[in-house]
Amino acid sequence: MIDAAGIAEQFRAQDELVFVDAAVAGDRLAELRREAEQLAPTATRMHVPFVRKGGTVGGRRIRRDAPAMAALYRELVADVALLTGHPLYEKDEDDDHAVALYCYRAGDFMASHLDRCGSAPFGSYSVTVGIIDESTSRLECELSGGRTLAFSTGPGSLTIYNGSRIGHAVSRLGPGERRIVLSGSYRTQARPDAVPYLAQRLAEGFLSFGWTGRERRR
């Protein structure tokens, strides 16, 4: 799906971050959009002041009801591993944040944050696939030396980044706007360190699904 050799230099120069426009196209993108339109109305909406406002569809439901999204998550791990130069592993199947559909509408946002997944330091890599973008919102990434890059995640775009090294945020959507992205993450360890992984799952679960920390069955 990506030319790892062709973008490797840029990836390294940007602290392990690269943006690929039109990485997904044609019938495959159309199927992702169909699944997104079907799942978005059922997303769990959460608002944590100053931290996050938005909707989430968790990984367990994506694996069950969105085969095109689930297949893309499984496929990308090999491409990202080639780019990083070391093995990567999918997160647990019962982890609702291993792969998730994030659904934003007017006023939604995500404050800058880092990802953790129970691996060694800087051991969490993320992908963001744009599916629907009818907004002025940007994926904002904070690099070393005070550098900042901002991307419009248009349909079919792919952003690959070290989520535990690069702070990333979603700028607030304006009136009447919407943005839907598929986001997945991989770790550098086959099995995570139990305590930090549990802590991260609890934190992510609260921000997306409330006190239960899990997406409720539908």
Structure description:
This protein is an alpha+beta fold and 218 residues long. The protein has a single domain (4-210), classed as Jelly Rolls. The protein has helices at residues 4-13, 26-39, 59-65, 67-84, 194-209; strands at residues 17-20, 44-48, 52-57, 89-90, 99-105, 109-113, 124-134, 139-142, 148-151, 158-162, 167-170, 178-187. Strands 1, 2, 3, 4, 5, 6, 7, 8, 9, 10, 11 and 12 form a twelve-stranded antiparallel beta sheet that branches. Helix 3 packs across helix 4. The radius of gyration is 16 Å and the shape is globular. 41% of the residues are buried.
What is this entry, summarized?
The chain has 218 residues and is an alpha+beta fold.
List the helices and strands and how they pair.
Blueprint lengths: L3 H10 L3 E4 L5 H14 L4 E5 L3 E6 L1 H7 L1 H18 L4 E2 L8 E7 L3 E5 L10 E11 L4 E4 L5 E4 L6 E5 L4 E4 L7 E10 L6 H16 L9
Antiparallel strand pairs: 1-10, 2-3, 3-5, 3-6, 4-12, 5-12, 6-11, 7-10, 7-12, 8-9, 8-11
Helix pairs in contact: 1-4, 3-4
Annotation keywords:
alpha+beta; 218 residues; globular; Jelly Rolls; twelve-stranded antiparallel beta sheet
Question: Given the C-alpha coordinates, what overall shape results?
Answer: globular
N/C terminus separation: 33 Å
Number of strands: 12
Count of helix runs: 5
Structural class: alpha+beta
Q: Uncertain segments of ≥5 residues (pLDDT<50)?
A: none
User: What helical percentage do the residues reach?
Assistant: 25-40%
Oligomer: single chain
State the major sheet.
Answer: 12 strands, antiparallel
Number of domains: 1
Order of helices and strands: HEHEEHHEEEEEEEEEH
CATH class: Mainly Beta
CATH topology: Jelly Rolls
